[in-house]
């Protein structure tokens, strides 16, 4: 029973030459695979190196572009034509004008207040002067009246 199962195999590989040729074919296919794998590894290494070179080149180009942009902005800033600078200067100028306007309004308000206080104090001084003058006149007149009355009584 075991011999009948093995017999077809034996018949298939009945020739040693044929077995050797099968082994040779397998060796060649393995060697072919090895060389294909080596080629693939080499091409992957080349691709990785090429990708790395591209990356470095792109990074360098980005650096140079950014540097050129910053130099252009610096030149514009020094010339006063940089848009961001102009916006900030315009805002700063508006704030300055607003502060000057507020200071002028405050000065005007303070000046009006001082003038009102001056007029009020002047009126108070004039009134006090007039009151004192009336008081002195009354006092003087009272003394004169008393002096007259005394002089009449003594006579």
UniProtKB/TrEMBL annotation:
Transmembrane segments: none annotated. Pfam families: Sds3 (PF08598). Residues 60-102 form a coiled coil. Residues 13-27, 35-44 have a biased composition (Acidic residues). GO terms for biological process: regulation of gene expression. It comes from the Eukaryota. It is found in: Nucleus. Residues 1-54 are annotated as: Disordered. GO terms for cellular component: nucleoplasm. Keywords: Coiled coil, Nucleus, Repressor, Transcription, Transcription regulation. The keyword S-adenosyl-L-methionine does not apply. This is SDS3 homolog, SIN3A corepressor complex component. It comes from Hucho hucho.
């Amino acid at each position: 029973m075991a011999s009948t199962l093995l017999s077809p195999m034996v018949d298939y590989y009945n020739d040693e030459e044929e077995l050797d040729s099968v082994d040779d074919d397998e060796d060649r296919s393995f060697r072919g695979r090895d060389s294909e794998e080596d080629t693939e590894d080499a091409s992957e290494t080349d691709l990785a190196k090429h990708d790395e070179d591209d990356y470095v080149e792109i990074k360098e180009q980005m650096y140079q572009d950014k540097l050129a942009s910053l130099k252009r902005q610096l030149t514009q800033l020094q010339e006063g034509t940089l848009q961001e600078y102009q916006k900030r200067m315009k805002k700063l100028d508006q704030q300055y004008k607003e502060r000057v306007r507020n200071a002028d309004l405050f000065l005007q308000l303070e000046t009006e207040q001082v003038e009102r206080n001056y007029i009020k104090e002047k009126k108070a001084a004039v009134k006090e002067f007039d009151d004192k003058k009336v008081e002195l006149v009354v006092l003087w007149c009272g003394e004169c009246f008393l002096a007259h009355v005394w002089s009449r009584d003594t006579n």
